Amino acid sequence: MIASVIVDVPAKQTDRAFEYRVPESMQGLIQRGMRVVVPFGPRKIQGFVVGFPEQSSFKQLKDIEELLDIVPVLNQELLSLGLWLSQETLCYQISAMQVMLPAAMKAKYEKVFDALVPIDDLPQTIIEHMDRNGQLTWKKGTENNLLRDLQTLVTSGEMELRYEVKSKAKKKKERIISLALSCDHAIEVIQSMSARSEKQKKVLHMFLQSENTPLPVKIVKEETGATSATIRTMIDRGFLEESQKEVYRDPFEHREFKRTKSFRLTDEQQQAIDPILDKVDDYSHETFLLHGVTGSGKTEVYLQTIDKVLQQDRQAIMLVPEISLTPQMVERFKGRFGDQVAVMHSGLSVGEKYDEWRKIHRKEVNVVVGARSAIFSPFERLGVIIIDEEHETSYKQEDTPRYHARDVAIERAKRHGCPVILGSATPSLETFARAQKGLYYLLTLSKRMNDQAMPHVSIVDMREELRKGNRSMFSRDLLEQLQLRLEKNEQTVLFLNKRGHSSFIMCRDCGYVMQCPYCEVSMTYHRHSEQMKCHYCGHQDRVPVICPECHSEHIRYFGTGTQKVEEELATLLPQARVIRMDVDTTSRKGSHEKLLAAFGEGQADILLGTQMIAKGLDFPNITLVGVLSADTMLHLPDFRSAEKTFQLLTQVSGRAGRHDKEGEVIIQTYTPEHYSIDLAKSQEFEAFYKHEMIMRKTGQYPPFYYMALITLSHENVLKVVAVCEEITSLIKQKLSSQVIILGPVASPIARIQNRYRYQCLIKYKQEQGLKPLLKSILNDYQSSKKDSITIQIDVQPYMMM
DNA sequence: AGCACGCCGACT
DNA sequence: GTCGGCGTGCTC
Q1: Residues A334-338: contacts with CB within 8 Å, 24+ apart?
Q2: Considering only Cβ atoms within 10 Å of each terminal Cβ, which end of chain A, N or C, has fewer?
Q3: Where does the Helicase C-terminal domain lie (predicted)?
Q4: What's this model's pTM, rounded to 2 decimal places?
Q5: Is the pLDDT of residue A323 over 60?
Q6: What whole-number distance in Å separates Cα of residue A525 and Cα of residue A558?
Q7: Minimal CA–CA distance to A637: which of A779, A783, A742?
Q8: Which residues pair with A666 in a beta bridge?
């Protein structure tokens, strides 16, 4: 029996199946989608079984070394999805498989020296560095400068070098004890015990009372006051038995979720859900765009759809942009579906993610709520896939495999015969265009639930403020409203668009801005460490006191970081209690939730933060939302900047007045006439859509064109430019005249970690030969050699940097 | 990705 | 003459 295996070596030359003999012992056990350990050259590596060919053209097949799973970790559907993913995103097959599994399952490799003779016969220098098992790792050997000696020992046959595959996936174990005696016997033992063995008696009584159910050691100790020593003795004397039980790490261990029931849907919601449920009933695929204004009750539509899916004994995936940011969403799902729900997000530890994944794999849950990678949850009978806030850019993975969760969702749903729901108040242009064309089924929720009024949005022209002599970051309007909230004891959210506005150092005399010496970006000033830092390569530097260019002393910290806003707030409104949320204050695990909870409990008047507070914030007492400068995002070199600005402003505005109190939104800007800001004021999505579509058409951008971005980087500028030109002309030659090629041009970030970056952007409508061409370009230019060009291809890129 | 093999320069 | 630099090709 022969198995073909995709090996864990991400390189172009190994991006194919290798064949192995299946040893007798594994036959009847081994299945496609299981992980194995195989010999590969001199080492041992992990691989995935993908098939069982009848015969092999290869003469000298090696045996599979070890079978790592009892149940396949990738089912048939995921295996074929992996192949699709690798073709679609031009990545290696092994990378596609790896991305579908939790990080904990990625194999680790270690080289170990093992003694072949009695350990005492080895030199003392070696012995003293060995571990208990008489092994010495390669790493330790290098650290202690023993490689020479080890080499001699290996050649003389006294030691051997082995390549080990280590699994990082550790299952959490708990020590369990149970009675090793029959109940009658235990009673006898108690009676025969001396009076001094009081603790032991107590333990035995405990087991008799619980009818000898095995109990965790921890519990027994707490209940009886017995110590580890007591229990040890009892085990030694044969009264108790010890075993290990696997337990799940529960990220929500100390949280109670109130059970909730379905709400009655409004007419509008009912009209939206009916066509979805029809598709669920038919086991047929359809992509729905659920376009609903903020507060229109999209979530209830999701919940009731999932309810239906569960009734049919099927499963559901619900994607959210970044779940740790929306504990309220977790709450709603756990509340409705209880322990049927697994939660997957980046805030979990590797082990916690692994445990949540295993709950799905073992069919212990039927619903997954999670971020992007949750789209690969190993369900076998999907009934619906929901993507909330469909327009969010975090659904696109920015490193290989560069997939978009939306595309994967639709591909999976086709295979399972189930609907996809894309929900948003501000759908991406691509999605809305598809809905308009009839490729997606458009569902609209135009009314807010409970007839809440939409918040009142006003725009403040900051140029006008400046003319009036107001040089502060706060317009008079905003300050006035802020004061009003303080008096009324209501809350405010202040939103600062961080991109392009983080604090940098600038010389007021000559305009010098401190740049990273290795990357073409300004360095950011970090207050708490009093250092300059590069966000791309992490390079740190001292804060300059005099300008290195003109030696002026007027060099200072510039820009509007959240810290600076906080300081200004403290001067303007000293009585206000402010909670600041940014990278600095939320870096510790769980601090996010804590800060939000504190704000929810009314411990502060103002919540000040960046992007991260734009989502999922839903507190009744927020009646004012201020956007300090709406246009920082608008000037980024990105054709989606207007779309992103509109989405963000709409999103942020939705935070105000979600309950019975009326909300007020103030947007400060230097370009009030820009359509994305003007239309965000009136929250007219369709008007914005029409305008933006015209811009995209003239600019020849998506959704009118598809795109592919090739980025090259190398230390030598000339080399990058030369290769980029070569590739560009090759593309021009091979593709049709319909194709528009921009490049070679320097990337918006022209240098990172001292490597110059050039790119070539391909815009196309229909191009059969594109994928094969890109694949061959990768093949020709991608190489593992050092000092060679790095090539990166992103199909449908989101970040143009 | 590793690792062995193999071909050239600078050393005891 | 050999040691060691890294460029090339292979791994079932």
Answers
A1: A334/A252, A334/A257, A335/A257, A335/A258, A335/A259, A335/A260, A336/A259, A336/A260, A336/A261, A336/A262, A336/A303, A336/A306, A336/A307, A337/A306, A337/A310, A337/A366, A337/A367, A338/A257, A338/A259
A2: N
A3: 542-710
A4: 0.86
A5: no
A6: 9
A7: A742
A8: A458, A626
- Residue A13 approaches strand C within 7 Å at CB: yes
Round and report the angstrom distance from CA (A54) to C1' (B6).
38
| Nucleotide nearest A19 (Cα, C1') | C12
pLDDT of amino acid A500: 40
Residue A260 vs residue A66, higher pLDDT: A66
In the complex, which nucleotide's C1' lies nearest to the CA atom of residue A40? C11
Q: What tens digit of pLDDT does each residue of A163-189 get?
A: 888 876 667 778 888 888 788 888 888
| Domains A2-106 and A456-501+560-696 alike in fold | no
Reduce the secondary structure of A319-339 to three states and give it as a string. ECCCHHHCHHHHHHHHHHHHH
Output phi, psi for A463, to 5 deg.
-65, -40
**pLDDT cut 70: percent of chain A above it:** 94
Instruction: Give the closest residue to A274 by CA, choosing from A308, A313, A314, A310.
Output: A308
Best mean pLDDT range from A219-233, A527-541, A648-662, A676-690: A676-690
Provide the pLDDT for residue A303.
95
| Measured distance CA(A514)–CA(A556) in Å, rounded | 10
Residue A139 (CA) to nucleotide B10 (C1'), in angstroms, measures: 31
Cα–Cα distance measured from residue A774 to residue A210, given in angstroms and rounded to the nearest whole number: 67
The structural domains of chain A, with segments of one domain joined by +, span 2-106, 108-167, 173-246, 267-450, 456-501+560-696, 503-558, 706-794
What was the pLDDT predicted at A501?
43
Straight-line distance from CA A159 to C1' C9, in Å? 29
CATH topology of domain A456-501+560-696: Rossmann fold (3.40.50)
> CA-to-C1' distance for A43 and B8, Å?
29
Q: Using alpha carbons, select from A638, A661, A663 the residue that is nearest to residue A653.
A: A663
Say which residue the tokens 């047929």 belong to. Answer: A284
Nearest nucleotide (CA of A41 to C1'): C11
Q: Kindly list the distances between the CA atom of residue A541 and the CA atoms of A44, A160, A514, in Å, as whole numbers in the listed order.
A: 43, 47, 10
- Is the model's pLDDT at A366 over the cut of 70? yes
CA A41 to C1' B2 (Å) is 9
* Backbone angle region of A709, left / alpha / beta, with phi > 0 → left and psi within -120 to 50 → alpha: beta
Model confidence over A582-641: pLDDT tens digits? 766 666 666 777 777 788 888 888 888 877 776 656 777 888 999 988 877 777 778 898
Weakest mean pLDDT among A234-238, A617-621, A771-775: A617-621
A551 Cβ contacts chain C strand, under 7 Å: no
Q: Is the CB of A786 under 7 A from strand C?
A: yes
A183 labeled binding residue: no
Question: Superfamily assignment of A267-450 in CATH?
Answer: P-loop containing nucleotide triphosphate hydrolases (3.40.50.300)
Closest-approach nucleotide to residue A5, Cα vs C1': C12
Second CATH level (architecture) for the domain A2-106: 3-Layer(aba) Sandwich (3.40)
Tokens representing residue A724 in the block: 């980029």
- Residue A724 annotated as binding site: no
> pLDDT digit string (tens) for A778-800?
888 887 666 678 899 999 998 87
Residues with CB under 7 A from strand B: A 9-11, 13-14, 41-43, 109, 111, 163, 784
**Cβ–Cβ < 8 Å for A699, A769:** no
Tokens, residue A241: 């038995």
User: What count of Cα atoms within 13 Å lies in the side-chain half-sphere of residue A425?
Assistant: 26
Q: Nearest protein residue to C10's C1' (by CA)?
A: A41
Q: What is the pLDDT of residue A467?
A: 85
- Architecture of the domain spanning A706-794: 2-Layer Sandwich (3.30)
